Amino acid sequence: MATKAVRAKKLKVAIRGPGKTAIKLTVNGETHELLIEPRRTLLNALRKDLGLTGTKKACDEGTCGTCTVLLEGKPIYACMALAIECDGKSVETIESLSKDGQLHPIQRAFIAEDALQCGFCTPGQIMSVKALLDENPNPTLDDVKRVLSGNLCRCGAYPKLFQAALRAADLVRTGR
Amino acid sequence: MRTFEHVNAPDVQTAVALLGEASTEAIAGGTDLLGELKARLRSPQRLVNLKTLAGLQEISYSPKAGLRLGALVTLAEIERHPIIQERFPILAQAAASAATPQLRNMGTIGGNLCQKPRCWYYRNKLFECWLKGGDKCFAEDGENKYHAILGADRCHAVHPSDLAPALIALDATLRVVGPDLDGELSLEELYTKPTESRRQMTILGPGELITDIRVPIPKNGSRGVYLKTMERQSWSFALVSVAAQMNFAGERIADARVVLGGVAAIPWRARDSERILIGQRFSEGLAERAVEAAVAGAQPLRDNEYKVSLAKALVKRVIIDLCSTTD
């Protein structure tokens, strides 16, 4: 270990960890300074360090999609990203959607279409739909199916999820 | 995950030097590595983050030099790139068929080519299988539904990449940089059946990094297709996949490259099928002979004989598809 540290020092690189190190994370428009170990996932940083528990944790291995958040505008699995590698980047979570007590059109569409049973996967589903509509305000059913192909719903609410996404597109397009 | 140190690699030379040290792993997209770290298949003391390397994030194309993909290009970028969709459709198809939108936004082409097998014995810490240094392949007489049918010896895991068969069918080359080397090799040469002394699926040694992937421009009139069978329509590794690229001289097949995924420890080039096809006109009989050649020598295990039928059906379908399309 000692020789390794010396050699790395010779290479003039900044070694962080294994203890806590400071990072800056912009979440839903607000920049936070966090002290985290390099092994901290983005998901645990959001939930445990920032108390943003809207992003759910289920499989914790990239096989369910319930932890979907937007990193620099693109949907990713927060459980498979290291928080330290999001240093200086911007993250959007489900908590960013409602404004001043008003639900976001995607959230209203999910309620109107009854697009959930147990609701556990819903934050992830909504963030995937958000990513789609940010890029393509006029999606087809195939576009919707494709963007939701990385979010499991064990209740099997897919037909209603698809309807909700299309209704949300309509609400967003018409500014309702 | 156990604790580790973390270093952002400032340049390729420094990354290579750092990765040459003991108990150090490279991380790019992280979607494969974090799975291994969480399962404690390995617990490195240091991760070297390659995402900070400049110049490896670009896709470039010129009619003369062909396509160049930096190793950090994501699968989503490949899937959506208009020139790749138009000129290298099998590459776009293979990228689009992999994993999910979220994982494609994270995973890089370099990492996809170097990913570890999905064999459930390999991925489970409780099984000290041969590939991890033990002395037994538990799949051989165990649960082997997803395992190899061709060329397996001590290990029956298959290489899981979708992009590797497509890129081999396109005759891609790689630039690899390491402590004592900086050179090009064909992608096909990257892969090797694991052996007693080298229990891994690529020839890369410690500190050796893929920096670029280059794809030559297919000849005029060349056509390709990538087909993948899965247990569900998305988010699955291939049961069997086939990437094929052919070009034609009049009605004859001038050149053919046929590569199978999901059947062996390496992307499996069906060279005997290619030899049968090249120089011939399409006929049912020709396709049948090429299909039989693709699975000649197959040794299915208890639960994966279905892969032989799948492989035959897919190879037949790509041959018919490519020979019956007219520009």
Task: Provide the descriptors you would attach to this structure in a database record.
heterodimer; A: 176 residues; alpha+beta; Ubiquitin-like (UB roll); DNA polymerase, domain 1; disordered N terminus; B: 327 residues; Uridine Diphospho-n-acetylenolpyruvylglucosamine Reductase, domain 2; Enolase-like, domain 1; 3 domains; globular
What does this structure look like?
The complex is a heterodimer of chains A (176) and B (327). Chain A has 176 residues and is of the alpha+beta class. Helix content of chain A is 35%, strand content 15%. Chain A has two domains: 15-96, Beta-grasp domain (Ubiquitin-like (UB roll), Roll); 105-173, DNA polymerase, domain 1 (Orthogonal Bundle), CATH 1.10.150. Chain A has helices spanning 2-10, 42-49, 105-112, 122-135, 141-147, 158-173; strands at 15-16, 21-27, 30-36, 68-71, 74-77, 90-92. Chain A is elongated, with a radius of gyration of 19 Å. A five-stranded mixed beta sheet of chain A has the order 3-2-6-4-5, sandwiched between helices. Chain A starts with a helix and ends with a helix. In chain A, helix 3 packs across helix 6 and helix 4 crosses helix 6 (158-173). Chain B is of the alpha+beta class and 327 residues long. Chain B has three domains: 1-50, 2-Layer Sandwich (Uridine Diphospho-n-acetylenolpyruvylglucosamine Reductase, domain 2), CATH 3.30.43.10; 59-114 and 158-215, 2-Layer Sandwich (Uridine Diphospho-n-acetylenolpyruvylglucosamine Reductase, domain 3); 223-324, CO dehydrogenase flavoprotein, C-terminal domain (Enolase-like, domain 1). Chain B contains 13 helices and twelve strands. Chain B has helices spanning 12-19, 33-38, 75-80, 82-87, 89-97, 101-106, 109-113, 120-123, 163-169, 187-190, 271-277, 284-294, 306-324, and strands at 5-8, 24-27, 46-49, 59-62, 66-70, 173-178, 181-186, 209-215, 223-229, 240-249, 252-261, 268-269. In chain B, the strands form three sheets. Chain B has a five-stranded antiparallel beta sheet with strand order 4-5-8-6-7. In chain B, a hairpin with a 3-residue loop joins strand 4 and strand 5 (66-70).
